[in-house]
Amino acid sequence: MINSIRSVRRAKRLTLDDVARRCDPPTTPQTIGRLETGTRTLSIDWLNRIADALSVSSAELVSMPDETQHEVTALLTPDGAHAPTRPEPLSPQRIGEDMLALRVTGGVGDYRSGDHVWCRPLKADDYASALNRDVLVPRPAGRFVFGRLIGMDGEKLHLLPLGTGTRQHVVANPPWLAVAARLVRDL
Predict the structure, then answer these.
(1) What CATH superfamily is the domain 72-184?
(2) 72-184: same fold as 5-61?
(3) Percentage of the chain surpassing pLDDT 70?
(4) How many CA atoms lie within 13 A of 82 on its CB side?
(5) Partners of 102 in the beta sheet?
(6) pLDDT tens-place string over residues 133-163
(7) φ and ψ at 18, to 5 degrees?
(8) The HTH cro/C1-type domain covers which part of the protein (predicted)?
(9) Could you state, in order of their start, the residue ranges of all structural domains in the chain?
(10) CA dist 156 → 130, 139, 148, 171 (Å)
(11) Pairing of the two strands 177-184 and 116-122
(12) Neighbour-count burial for 128-147, b at 16+ CB within 10 Å, e otherwise
């Protein structure tokens, strides 16, 4: 059985020791590591214990061959949207393959720290459908703008970032635009 315990654990930023202590009854980090790598057989009992420790369903820990792994595209902080400094996998979600992920690391606007915002890329001729919605737009050098699309002037997009007292950004002829389509928030 192929499992995705490691990717889910890393996406939740937990160590082997964290998961081991959260198991009921607690176990050792070595055991969790062996179950992750497949050097120890992952029984249904272990699968359920680890799923409970990670606060996910057991089905989310079993990788299906046709599942697509997603990585965070951008991080949203009160200072704006930025590219991650290292790859950041996400827990498996039933989200379309073409979706882009934005992880909120500092609360801004309606978004809280820990939120994942899934954005759907649009074709250039569909940009108008994103007016008055939150969008993610790339800028040169791995930078991004995440904000409300408030206007379009030819190939120029006018975006209002979400923080209070922020200035409007104008992005000319972006290579793509993705509209916020789904918010995933842990309770």
Answers:
(1) Umud Fragment, subunit A (2.10.109.10)
(2) no
(3) 90
(4) 9
(5) 74, 117
(6) 999 999 887 789 999 999 999 889 999 988 8
(7) -60, -45
(8) 5-61
(9) 5-61, 72-184
(10) 14, 13, 14, 6
(11) antiparallel
(12) eebeeebbbbbeeeeebbbb
At residue 86's C-alpha, the angle toward residues 130 and 182, to 5°, is: 30
Number of H helices, E strands in the chain: 4, 9
**What's domain 5-61's superfamily in CATH?**
lambda repressor-like DNA-binding domains (1.10.260.40)
Q: What is the mean pLDDT of residues 96-116?
A: 84
Question: DSSP label at 113?
Answer: T
- 116 within 8 A of 95, measured Cβ to Cβ: no
Length of the chain: 187
Q: Residue 3: helix, strand or coil by DSSP?
A: strand
Average pLDDT, whole number, for the chain? 85
182 in the Ramachandran plot: left (φ > 0), alpha (ψ -120 to 50) or beta?
beta
